[in-house]
Amino acid sequence: MTTAPRREPLAFGDADEVVVALRAAGHRVSRAARTVLAALFAAERPVAAEQIADGLGGDLPALELTSVYRNLERLEQLGVVSHVHVGHSPGLYSLVRDGDPEYIVCDGCGAVVTADHAALEPVRAAVREAFGYEASFTHFPMHGRCAACARRGG
Fold first, then answer.
1. CATH match of 102-152 with 3.30.1490.190
2. pLDDT of res. 2
């Protein structure tokens, strides 16, 4: 049985470990890079670059949006960050801790849930069986309705 390709898990436990890896890769670590990392480690769910630039609602210093995108791109190339596209909104960014995270999104309320890779294997198996495709829910998540929205008919 084949599964969707996954990145090897990364061992970044905190922002300081990422800073060490960035420097080892020859990157300069600016105040903006540290702030972006602090935002990603503080966020409980994937966040938009605009939220990071705004300082996560005032918890962190505000940054120029171009600087945030530049740092997110560099962190993504290093394998520290991944992004997901939810609906028609801008990409949302999160840390890659145990391989690329996979997501399920509620079309009713917009909730974004990180799904366990193994729990999605039956879904991948059904898609593989029916269509011959290896499904992945990393860059584009699986959509549906959460239990609360399904009950409300929303």
1. yes
2. 41
